Amino acid sequence: MYSNRDYLKHGLLLFLTLIATTLAGGEWLYGRSVLSDEKPLTWEFFLLSLQFSIPFLGILFIHEMGHLFTSIYHKVRSSLPFFIPAWLGFIGAPSIGTFGAVIQMKSQVGSRKKFFDIGVAGPLAGFVMALAVLIYGFTTLPEASYIYEIHPEYADPRYDKEADENVMDIQLGYNLLFWIMQETLADPERMPDMAEVIHYPYLFAGYLALFFTALNLLPIGQLDGGHVVFGILPKHHKQLSLLAYTLFLFFAGLGVISPYEDLNYLIFALPLYIGFLYICFRKAGISNTNQWIIALGMAAIQYTLVSFYPGIQGYSGWLLFAFLIGRVLGINHPEVPDGRPLDQKRKILGWIAILIFILCFIPRPFVIE
Predict the structure, then answer these.
(1) 363 phi and psi, to 5 degrees?
(2) What are 8-52's pLDDT values in tens digits?
(3) DSSP class of 341
(4) 342, 353 contact by CB (below 8 A)
(5) CA distances (Å), 152 to each of 30, 32, 145, 147, 355, in order?
(6) CA 181, CA 135: separation in Å to the nearest integer?
Protein backbone atom coordinates (compact mmCIF):
# COMPACT_ATOMS: atom_id res chain seq x y z
CA MET A 1 0.00 0.00 0.00
CA TYR A 2 2.87 2.34 0.82
CA SER A 3 6.18 2.41 -1.01
CA ASN A 4 9.64 2.43 0.53
CA ARG A 5 9.87 6.05 -0.60
CA ASP A 6 6.76 6.88 1.44
CA TYR A 7 8.18 5.25 4.56
CA LEU A 8 11.49 7.07 4.06
CA LYS A 9 9.88 10.48 3.52
CA HIS A 10 7.47 10.25 6.45
CA GLY A 11 10.04 8.59 8.69
CA LEU A 12 12.49 11.41 7.97
CA LEU A 13 9.86 14.02 8.85
CA LEU A 14 9.15 12.19 12.10
CA PHE A 15 12.87 12.05 12.93
CA LEU A 16 13.35 15.76 12.16
CA THR A 17 10.33 16.58 14.31
CA LEU A 18 11.79 14.53 17.16
CA ILE A 19 15.03 16.52 16.90
CA ALA A 20 13.12 19.82 16.70
CA THR A 21 10.89 19.06 19.70
CA THR A 22 13.92 17.91 21.71
CA LEU A 23 15.72 21.18 20.92
CA ALA A 24 12.59 23.09 21.93
CA GLY A 25 12.31 20.94 25.05
CA GLY A 26 15.83 21.92 26.08
CA GLU A 27 14.83 25.58 25.85
CA TRP A 28 11.61 25.18 27.84
CA LEU A 29 12.81 22.70 30.45
CA TYR A 30 16.30 23.95 31.17
CA GLY A 31 16.62 27.34 29.44
CA ARG A 32 19.38 25.88 27.26
CA SER A 33 19.74 26.40 23.53
CA VAL A 34 21.99 24.73 21.01
CA LEU A 35 22.81 28.25 19.75
CA SER A 36 23.63 29.73 23.17
CA ASP A 37 27.17 30.32 24.41
CA GLU A 38 26.13 31.11 27.99
CA LYS A 39 23.81 28.13 28.54
CA PRO A 40 24.43 25.68 25.68
CA LEU A 41 22.31 22.59 25.14
CA THR A 42 24.95 19.95 25.79
CA TRP A 43 24.51 16.30 24.87
CA GLU A 44 23.56 15.58 28.50
CA PHE A 45 20.69 18.07 28.45
CA PHE A 46 19.67 17.00 24.95
CA LEU A 47 19.14 13.46 26.26
CA LEU A 48 17.25 14.79 29.30
CA SER A 49 15.01 16.78 26.95
CA LEU A 50 13.86 13.53 25.35
CA GLN A 51 11.71 13.15 28.48
CA PHE A 52 9.55 15.86 26.91
CA SER A 53 9.82 15.17 23.19
CA ILE A 54 9.22 11.39 23.27
CA PRO A 55 5.94 11.44 25.27
CA PHE A 56 4.73 14.54 23.43
CA LEU A 57 5.41 13.13 19.96
CA GLY A 58 4.25 9.71 21.15
CA ILE A 59 0.81 11.13 21.92
CA LEU A 60 0.63 12.89 18.53
CA PHE A 61 1.80 9.68 16.84
CA ILE A 62 -0.92 7.59 18.53
CA HIS A 63 -3.48 10.22 17.54
CA GLU A 64 -2.49 10.00 13.88
CA MET A 65 -2.32 6.19 14.00
CA GLY A 66 -5.92 6.20 15.21
CA HIS A 67 -6.90 8.07 12.04
CA LEU A 68 -4.69 5.93 9.81
CA PHE A 69 -5.74 2.49 11.05
CA THR A 70 -9.42 3.47 10.96
CA SER A 71 -9.10 4.73 7.38
CA ILE A 72 -7.36 1.46 6.43
CA TYR A 73 -10.15 -0.49 8.12
CA HIS A 74 -12.75 1.40 6.08
CA LYS A 75 -10.67 1.04 2.88
CA VAL A 76 -10.22 4.79 2.55
CA ARG A 77 -6.88 5.62 0.91
CA SER A 78 -4.82 8.02 2.97
CA SER A 79 -1.22 9.08 3.40
CA LEU A 80 1.06 8.20 6.25
CA PRO A 81 1.19 10.97 8.90
CA PHE A 82 3.03 14.14 7.88
CA PHE A 83 4.85 15.42 10.97
CA ILE A 84 5.76 19.09 10.65
CA PRO A 85 9.01 20.13 12.35
CA ALA A 86 9.06 23.74 13.49
CA TRP A 87 11.93 24.71 15.77
CA LEU A 88 12.27 28.51 15.82
CA GLY A 89 15.25 28.86 18.15
CA PHE A 90 17.42 30.14 15.31
CA ILE A 91 15.38 33.39 15.28
CA GLY A 92 15.10 33.56 19.06
CA ALA A 93 11.37 32.79 19.11
CA PRO A 94 9.74 30.31 21.50
CA SER A 95 8.32 27.18 19.85
CA ILE A 96 7.37 23.64 20.77
CA GLY A 97 9.28 22.15 17.83
CA THR A 98 6.30 21.19 15.69
CA PHE A 99 3.11 22.43 14.10
CA GLY A 100 1.57 19.00 14.69
CA ALA A 101 0.83 16.25 12.19
CA VAL A 102 -1.75 15.62 9.47
CA ILE A 103 -2.98 12.76 7.33
CA GLN A 104 -4.10 13.43 3.77
CA MET A 105 -7.17 11.61 2.49
CA LYS A 106 -6.55 10.35 -1.06
CA SER A 107 -9.97 8.90 -1.82
CA GLN A 108 -13.54 9.97 -1.22
CA VAL A 109 -15.12 9.18 2.14
CA GLY A 110 -18.51 7.96 1.03
CA SER A 111 -20.50 7.64 4.26
CA ARG A 112 -21.32 9.49 7.43
CA LYS A 113 -20.19 6.48 9.47
CA LYS A 114 -16.72 6.41 7.89
CA PHE A 115 -16.22 10.14 8.39
CA PHE A 116 -17.21 9.78 12.03
CA ASP A 117 -15.04 6.74 12.72
CA ILE A 118 -11.93 8.25 11.12
CA GLY A 119 -12.50 11.60 12.81
CA VAL A 120 -13.15 10.35 16.33
CA ALA A 121 -10.49 7.60 16.44
CA GLY A 122 -7.52 9.99 16.55
CA PRO A 123 -8.60 12.22 19.46
CA LEU A 124 -9.80 9.26 21.54
CA ALA A 125 -6.54 7.34 21.06
CA GLY A 126 -4.38 10.40 21.73
CA PHE A 127 -6.46 11.38 24.75
CA VAL A 128 -5.93 7.99 26.41
CA MET A 129 -2.17 8.36 25.94
CA ALA A 130 -2.23 11.94 27.22
CA LEU A 131 -4.06 10.77 30.35
CA ALA A 132 -1.38 8.14 30.96
CA VAL A 133 1.44 10.71 30.56
CA LEU A 134 -0.28 13.20 32.88
CA ILE A 135 -1.04 10.59 35.53
CA TYR A 136 2.63 9.63 35.53
CA GLY A 137 3.68 13.28 35.61
CA PHE A 138 1.40 14.25 38.50
CA THR A 139 2.23 11.20 40.61
CA THR A 140 6.03 11.42 40.16
CA LEU A 141 6.63 15.12 40.77
CA PRO A 142 10.16 15.87 42.00
CA GLU A 143 10.85 17.65 45.27
CA ALA A 144 9.85 21.32 45.41
CA SER A 145 13.54 22.24 45.44
CA TYR A 146 13.82 20.93 41.85
CA ILE A 147 12.89 24.36 40.51
CA TYR A 148 16.10 25.80 42.04
CA GLU A 149 18.11 23.61 39.67
CA ILE A 150 16.50 25.48 36.76
CA HIS A 151 16.25 28.89 38.44
CA PRO A 152 18.88 29.15 41.18
CA GLU A 153 17.97 32.83 41.54
CA TYR A 154 14.63 31.79 43.08
CA ALA A 155 16.53 30.62 46.18
CA ASP A 156 17.55 34.22 46.89
CA PRO A 157 14.82 35.78 49.08
CA ARG A 158 15.71 39.20 47.65
CA TYR A 159 14.95 38.12 44.05
CA ASP A 160 11.84 39.72 42.55
CA LYS A 161 10.73 37.92 39.40
CA GLU A 162 8.22 40.62 38.46
CA ALA A 163 10.92 43.29 38.61
CA ASP A 164 13.36 41.29 36.46
CA GLU A 165 13.16 42.88 32.99
CA ASN A 166 15.15 40.03 31.43
CA VAL A 167 12.53 37.40 32.27
CA MET A 168 9.88 36.41 29.73
CA ASP A 169 6.99 35.27 31.91
CA ILE A 170 4.95 32.52 30.23
CA GLN A 171 1.81 31.60 32.11
CA LEU A 172 -0.06 28.47 31.06
CA GLY A 173 -3.84 28.53 31.32
CA TYR A 174 -5.95 25.93 33.05
CA ASN A 175 -8.41 23.52 31.53
CA LEU A 176 -10.88 21.48 33.55
CA LEU A 177 -9.04 18.17 33.20
CA PHE A 178 -5.61 19.54 34.13
CA TRP A 179 -7.09 21.26 37.18
CA ILE A 180 -8.99 18.13 38.28
CA MET A 181 -5.89 15.94 37.94
CA GLN A 182 -3.78 18.50 39.80
CA GLU A 183 -6.25 18.60 42.69
CA THR A 184 -6.66 14.83 42.95
CA LEU A 185 -3.25 13.37 42.02
CA ALA A 186 -0.52 15.90 42.76
CA ASP A 187 1.25 16.47 46.06
CA PRO A 188 0.34 20.12 46.85
CA GLU A 189 3.81 20.75 48.27
CA ARG A 190 5.44 19.63 45.01
CA MET A 191 2.95 20.99 42.48
CA PRO A 192 4.55 23.88 40.54
CA ASP A 193 2.89 27.15 39.65
CA MET A 194 1.43 27.17 36.14
CA ALA A 195 4.24 29.52 35.08
CA GLU A 196 6.75 26.80 35.99
CA VAL A 197 5.00 23.75 34.45
CA ILE A 198 7.15 24.29 31.35
CA HIS A 199 10.08 22.89 33.36
CA TYR A 200 8.33 19.59 34.12
CA PRO A 201 8.61 17.38 31.01
CA TYR A 202 5.66 15.03 31.50
CA LEU A 203 3.27 17.72 32.71
CA PHE A 204 4.24 20.02 29.84
CA ALA A 205 3.99 17.23 27.25
CA GLY A 206 0.56 16.22 28.58
CA TYR A 207 -0.61 19.83 28.71
CA LEU A 208 0.33 20.38 25.07
CA ALA A 209 -1.36 17.10 24.12
CA LEU A 210 -4.61 18.29 25.71
CA PHE A 211 -4.20 21.60 23.86
CA PHE A 212 -3.89 19.82 20.48
CA THR A 213 -6.73 17.44 21.35
CA ALA A 214 -9.05 20.36 22.04
CA LEU A 215 -8.03 22.12 18.82
CA ASN A 216 -8.81 19.01 16.80
CA LEU A 217 -12.15 18.55 18.55
CA LEU A 218 -13.46 22.04 17.85
CA PRO A 219 -16.92 21.31 16.35
CA ILE A 220 -16.16 23.16 13.15
CA GLY A 221 -15.99 22.12 9.49
CA GLN A 222 -13.58 19.29 8.70
CA LEU A 223 -11.75 19.26 12.02
CA ASP A 224 -12.16 16.01 13.96
CA GLY A 225 -14.84 17.68 16.07
CA GLY A 226 -16.61 18.73 12.87
CA HIS A 227 -16.69 15.08 11.75
CA VAL A 228 -18.19 14.17 15.13
CA VAL A 229 -20.95 16.78 14.90
CA PHE A 230 -21.59 15.82 11.27
CA GLY A 231 -22.12 12.25 12.47
CA ILE A 232 -24.27 12.65 15.56
CA LEU A 233 -26.27 15.78 14.62
CA PRO A 234 -26.73 15.47 10.84
CA LYS A 235 -29.61 17.94 10.60
CA HIS A 236 -27.89 20.73 12.49
CA HIS A 237 -24.18 20.42 11.72
CA LYS A 238 -24.09 23.41 9.34
CA GLN A 239 -25.69 25.76 11.84
CA LEU A 240 -23.65 24.39 14.75
CA SER A 241 -20.39 24.68 12.83
CA LEU A 242 -21.12 28.30 11.88
CA LEU A 243 -22.17 29.12 15.45
CA ALA A 244 -19.10 27.46 16.97
CA TYR A 245 -16.79 29.25 14.54
CA THR A 246 -18.46 32.61 15.20
CA LEU A 247 -18.12 32.21 18.97
CA PHE A 248 -14.51 31.06 18.63
CA LEU A 249 -13.62 34.05 16.45
CA PHE A 250 -15.55 36.39 18.74
CA PHE A 251 -13.55 35.27 21.78
CA ALA A 252 -10.28 35.41 19.85
CA GLY A 253 -10.82 39.04 18.85
CA LEU A 254 -12.36 40.32 22.06
CA GLY A 255 -10.26 43.28 23.20
CA VAL A 256 -8.43 43.78 19.90
CA ILE A 257 -10.37 47.00 19.32
CA SER A 258 -11.03 49.23 22.31
CA PRO A 259 -12.45 52.74 22.80
CA TYR A 260 -9.55 53.35 25.17
CA GLU A 261 -7.01 53.10 22.36
CA ASP A 262 -5.55 56.16 20.66
CA LEU A 263 -7.85 57.56 17.96
CA ASN A 264 -5.09 57.48 15.34
CA TYR A 265 -4.67 53.76 16.02
CA LEU A 266 -8.41 53.08 15.79
CA ILE A 267 -8.74 54.87 12.44
CA PHE A 268 -6.51 52.20 10.89
CA ALA A 269 -7.15 49.22 13.20
CA LEU A 270 -10.95 49.24 13.15
CA PRO A 271 -11.49 48.93 9.37
CA LEU A 272 -8.63 46.43 9.10
CA TYR A 273 -10.14 44.29 11.84
CA ILE A 274 -13.62 44.38 10.30
CA GLY A 275 -12.09 43.43 6.95
CA PHE A 276 -10.27 40.55 8.63
CA LEU A 277 -13.55 39.26 10.10
CA TYR A 278 -15.24 39.55 6.71
CA ILE A 279 -12.46 37.55 5.03
CA CYS A 280 -12.75 34.83 7.70
CA PHE A 281 -16.38 34.24 6.69
CA ARG A 282 -15.79 34.27 2.92
CA LYS A 283 -16.03 30.45 2.69
CA ALA A 284 -18.81 30.05 5.25
CA GLY A 285 -21.49 29.35 2.66
CA ILE A 286 -23.52 32.47 3.51
CA SER A 287 -24.37 35.50 1.38
CA ASN A 288 -22.02 38.44 0.99
CA THR A 289 -24.51 40.65 2.83
CA ASN A 290 -24.65 38.29 5.80
CA GLN A 291 -20.85 38.14 5.90
CA TRP A 292 -20.72 41.92 6.30
CA ILE A 293 -23.54 41.87 8.86
CA ILE A 294 -21.72 39.30 10.99
CA ALA A 295 -18.37 41.11 10.71
CA LEU A 296 -19.80 44.53 11.54
CA GLY A 297 -22.07 43.16 14.28
CA MET A 298 -19.26 41.19 15.91
CA ALA A 299 -16.93 44.22 15.93
CA ALA A 300 -19.68 46.45 17.32
CA ILE A 301 -20.55 44.04 20.14
CA GLN A 302 -16.88 43.55 21.05
CA TYR A 303 -16.28 47.31 21.06
CA THR A 304 -19.35 47.88 23.26
CA LEU A 305 -18.39 45.15 25.73
CA VAL A 306 -14.91 46.62 26.16
CA SER A 307 -16.51 50.05 26.68
CA PHE A 308 -18.52 48.78 29.66
CA TYR A 309 -15.94 46.26 30.92
CA PRO A 310 -12.44 47.63 30.19
CA GLY A 311 -10.70 44.60 31.67
CA ILE A 312 -12.48 42.05 29.51
CA GLN A 313 -10.09 40.21 27.21
CA GLY A 314 -10.28 37.26 24.83
CA TYR A 315 -7.21 35.56 23.40
CA SER A 316 -5.76 37.06 20.25
CA GLY A 317 -3.49 34.03 19.88
CA TRP A 318 -6.49 32.21 18.40
CA LEU A 319 -6.90 34.70 15.53
CA LEU A 320 -4.39 33.02 13.20
CA PHE A 321 -5.92 29.59 13.79
CA ALA A 322 -9.41 31.02 13.25
CA PHE A 323 -8.23 32.52 9.97
CA LEU A 324 -6.76 29.17 8.84
CA ILE A 325 -10.02 27.41 9.67
CA GLY A 326 -12.11 29.97 7.82
CA ARG A 327 -9.91 30.29 4.74
CA VAL A 328 -8.12 26.95 4.40
CA LEU A 329 -9.93 24.15 6.24
CA GLY A 330 -13.41 25.57 5.77
CA ILE A 331 -16.37 25.96 8.09
CA ASN A 332 -18.70 23.60 6.24
CA HIS A 333 -18.52 19.82 6.12
CA PRO A 334 -18.79 18.01 2.77
CA GLU A 335 -21.92 15.95 2.19
CA VAL A 336 -21.73 12.21 1.56
CA PRO A 337 -23.68 9.78 -0.67
CA ASP A 338 -24.47 7.53 2.29
CA GLY A 339 -26.06 9.74 4.91
CA ARG A 340 -27.61 7.05 7.08
CA PRO A 341 -27.65 7.94 10.80
CA LEU A 342 -25.11 6.46 13.20
CA ASP A 343 -25.88 3.57 15.51
CA GLN A 344 -26.30 4.15 19.24
CA LYS A 345 -22.75 3.09 20.18
CA ARG A 346 -21.23 5.62 17.80
CA LYS A 347 -23.51 8.36 19.09
CA ILE A 348 -22.33 7.64 22.63
CA LEU A 349 -18.70 7.84 21.45
CA GLY A 350 -19.52 11.15 19.79
CA TRP A 351 -20.88 12.63 23.00
CA ILE A 352 -17.83 11.33 24.87
CA ALA A 353 -15.65 13.16 22.34
CA ILE A 354 -17.62 16.37 22.97
CA LEU A 355 -17.12 15.89 26.73
CA ILE A 356 -13.37 15.44 26.14
CA PHE A 357 -13.35 18.72 24.19
CA ILE A 358 -15.03 20.51 27.12
CA LEU A 359 -12.52 19.02 29.56
CA CYS A 360 -9.47 19.82 27.40
CA PHE A 361 -10.24 23.24 25.92
CA ILE A 362 -7.99 26.00 27.27
CA PRO A 363 -9.44 29.48 26.65
CA ARG A 364 -6.08 31.26 27.14
CA PRO A 365 -3.40 28.58 26.74
CA PHE A 366 -0.21 30.69 26.59
CA VAL A 367 -0.06 34.15 28.10
CA ILE A 368 3.37 35.68 27.44
CA GLU A 369 4.55 38.85 29.18
Answers:
(1) -55, -45
(2) 999 999 999 999 999 999 999 998 888 887 888 899 999 999 999
(3) P
(4) no
(5) 12, 14, 10, 8, 41
(6) 8
